[in-house]
Amino acid sequence: MNKSRSAKWQRRLIQPPRAVIDIGSNTVRMVIYEGTGRAPEVVWNEKVAARLGRDLSNSGRIPQEAWDEALAALARYSLIISDLGVEDVQTVATAAARDAENGGEFLQAVAKLGLTPRLLSGEEEACASAMGALGAFPGAQGVVADLGGGSLELVSIADNDCREASSLRLGTLRLPALRAEGPEAFESAVHEQLASVGWAAAHTGPMYMVGGTWRALAAYAMRYIDYPLTDPHGFSLLPDDARRLAKELVAADPEKLIDISGISPMRANYLPDAAALLCPLLDEIGPDELVFSSWGLREGLLYSRLEPGQMQADPLLAGVTAYAAPRDASITEATLLAAWTVDLADGDGTLNERLRLAAAQLSGALQRVEPNLRDSHAIEWSLGKRWIDLDARGRAMICAALFGSMGRTELPERLRVLASDDDLREGVTWGLGFRLARRLGGGSRMSLTTSALKRKKKSLVLRLDESRAALAIYPATRDFEILAEWLNLKPKIKIGSFAVSELSEEEE
């Protein structure tokens, strides 16, 4: 990479782009990522439903039509990554190329396009998908179930590593032939294959659902319960609820499923078969819950290349920094803001501190948005954007904080489905504190390092160095009073010689 391009990526605080081309049994897809190594962001996502594995159950070969369609797409991808100057490219092939009689010939044709395809074994495919789940859910323990077109990968995970792994011929393109034999024969065939993975039931914890068809099932469930979020990533279901929904989907009309947001025509056709597979899968594995993941094989390939220190980085904070910093909201400023408002934090500090820091940085970015757009951006950034390792509760608290940073205490009603009243109240408190910090002196380092905000038993104390006394007038005093009133505390402003070491000695 030339020096000018390298400097460009440094200025943007992101890594150079990297691409993963995934030659699957259903689709041939290219995804280009930017952002940090720990929280890569998709900037290009293109696929062609070539269905290379559609005849595996009959002829055992890649059909010519699918062959031609896939190669045409791959030729296009090769040109795009070349034109965009993407130098970090991984091209991998899975079940269709692995199992087809002419799979080797197909990969030779792919290589002639200038790509370097790597054929993954079933175990390698399973572990790559598992690493994607581990990257998306730090500390995850349980079983990953990656449902593709040609195979179902099952792998146990713990301690940021893959344990047992198996690849079963239960992909969505193979299921129709199995179901054609009747419900009893289908369940018998599935249980027979699942019998080879008896290890899975011994791993307690969630089952992490990877793959587009599982995410389509999550979209159906979210619509069914009127869930206030749209992204299926991180959505969870209890086994009994999943089983009930699966039994409904088994007999569903694919044409009607297309009307549900998040379910493409292709996935709609596969959903009844996947639902039929889910019930015996739940019987054999017995997970505590189902957790749906947008990260899978492609993200796992990226995550597995990180250094141990990079793997341990917080993906939420990494993602927020990559998103907010180009919007003139640095992590340094956010850290200073979070430190200034630390006495407003309540509840579980360990659990909430990362949320408060993320909210502080996003609130900084929100201040650079036109006032008439801030409401919509606050909702979109907190509830709509895909953040990694951020649950529904955390999204709601960050949204509450962003509204608070605009001086708003009335919140969108849907937040109450996602978090408790106490959690939402704390989020608003953070935001009101962020607003006061910026109102006091523009959020400048000088104003925040020569002042302090302390919550006492009956009062809220704002202490300023005498050199900053001119800041303690309207409108800053009004925002201070609003915050104190919100906390049911009496506002007190103290002006004098300022030293951080003296703050703990201050008497109320």
Quickly list its features.
14 strands, 508 residues, alpha/beta, Nucleotidyltransferase, domain 5, Hypothetical protein af1432, elongated, disordered N terminus, disordered C terminus, 47% helix, 6-stranded mixed beta sheet, 3 domains
Structural summary, described in words:
This protein is an alpha/beta fold and about 500 residues long. The chain folds into 3 domains: about 5-120, ATPase, nucleotide binding domain (Nucleotidyltransferase, domain 5, 2-Layer Sandwich); about 125-300, Nucleotidyltransferase, domain 5, CATH 3.30.420.150; about 315-505, Hypothetical protein af1432 (Orthogonal Bundle), CATH 1.10.3210.10. About 45% of the residues lie in helices and about 15% in strands. It contains 22 helices and 14 strands. The strands form 3 sheets. Strands 8-7-6-9-11-10 form a 6-stranded mixed beta sheet, with helices on both faces. The protein has a 5-stranded mixed beta sheet with strand order 3-2-1-4-5, sandwiched between helices. Strands 12-13-14 form a 3-stranded mixed beta sheet. Strand 6 and strand 7 form a beta hairpin. Helix 17 packs antiparallel against helix 18. The relative contact order is 0.08. Residues about 1-15 and about 500-508 have low confidence and may be disordered.
